[in-house]
Amino acid sequence: MDVQESLKRIQSIVEGDVVSNFLTSLVLILSLWIINRISHKLIEKNTHDMRSQFRWKKGSTYTIVVIGIIVIGRVWFEGIQSLVTFFGLLSAGIAIALKDLFSDLAGWIFIISRKPFEVGNRIQIGEHCGDVIDLRPFQFTMLEIGNWVDADQSTGRMIHVPNGMIFTHPLSNYDKGFKYIWNEIPVLITFESDWHKAKTIIQTIVNEKTLAITPEVEKELRETSRKYLIFYNTLTPTVYTSVKDSGVLLTIRYLSEIRKRRSTAEEIWESLLDEFAKHDDIALAYPTFRKV
Fold first, then answer.
1. Residue 236 phi/psi, 5° resolution?
2. 143 with 130: CB under 8 angstroms?
3. 106-156 per-position pLDDT tens digit
């Protein structure tokens, strides 16, 4: 008797409630889509900064999607309480079959809640490096840098990365914490060169061309030290001396803004080449063979 009653109840749901719920859900989806479009128009009208527009649009879309899931879920849940066990087993099977999608969704929740990175940040995850330009529930998109292009400049390719990689791969964020990076330029001169003079020239040029250590930079470092165990005793540019097979190596180490590493290196090298050309007792070294 219980089985017959259950079958009759399921039949009544299929014949009546399903059609009604479907139509109600369709109206709700259409209404929420219209609200989302209106909110985007209002954001575009009142916000002129492109980054702010992007964030507000994403936030409004996510909010409306969550509201839609809750409201439509309530519509369907009222008529299917007798099928809770069936849907419980079905959902378990789906979770096993679609575990990667659930992992990506969990990664999205982790990203928007803990914020290991945000849209606009430059990051490296696994072997992929680039600027984050979009973030969605199942994947985020980066504009690739590096690869066959030197000095962290864009390749023009977009990389779509599953959000689940946040749990399984190391993540490096260029913009989080201290918003500068250390860069090094090796300058190799011959053993016959006057390396003392060369080092003085290099130090002078580097002091002129690199980032000035302003009170703002020091303040930012102090604020970062409160969150992370980051301490630098010296922030000013330094030139280190060592010896290699082909000559004396003078290594320049200096702070650079994240997206200006190549331009600052270019300015330093051009100044060094011009200055070294004025001195006959300084010459750049390269691998050579001498027969005695």
1. -75, 155
2. yes
3. 999 999 998 899 998 999 998 999 999 999 888 999 999 988 887 788 888
At residue 34, φ and ψ (nearest 5 deg) are -65, -45
Exposure string over 144-170, b if 16+ CB within 10 A, otherwise e: bbbeeeeebeeeeeebebbbbbbeeee
CA atoms of 194 and 192, how far apart (whole Å): 7
Please determine, for residue 215, whether its predicted confidence score (pLDDT) is greater than 60: yes
Q: How confident is the model at residue 90 (pLDDT cuts 50, 70, 90)?
A: low
Instruction: Name residue 121's amino acid.
Output: N
DSSP string, the chain: -HHHHHHHHHHHIIIIIHHHHHHHHHHHHHHHHHHHHHHHHHHHHH---HHHHHHHHHHHHHHHHHHHHHHHHHHHHTT-GGGHHHHHHHHHHHHHHTHHHHHHHHHHHHHHHH-SS-TT-EEEETTEEEEEEEE-SSEEEEEEESTTSSTT-EEEEEEEEEGGGGGTS-EEESSSSS-EEEEEEEEEE-TTS-HHHHHHHHHHHHHHHS----HHHHHHHHHHHHHS----S--S-EEEEEEETTEEEEEEEEEEEGGGHHHHHHHHHHHHHHHHTT-TT--B--------
* Separation of alpha carbons 190 and 46, rounded Å: 62
Q: At what angle do helices 195-209 and 261-276 cross, to 10 degrees?
A: 140
12-26 burial code (b ≥16 CB/10 A, e <16)? ebeeeeeeebeeebe
User: How far is residue 138's CA from residue 101's CA, in Å, rounded to a whole number?
Assistant: 7
Structure tokens given for 49: 């900064």
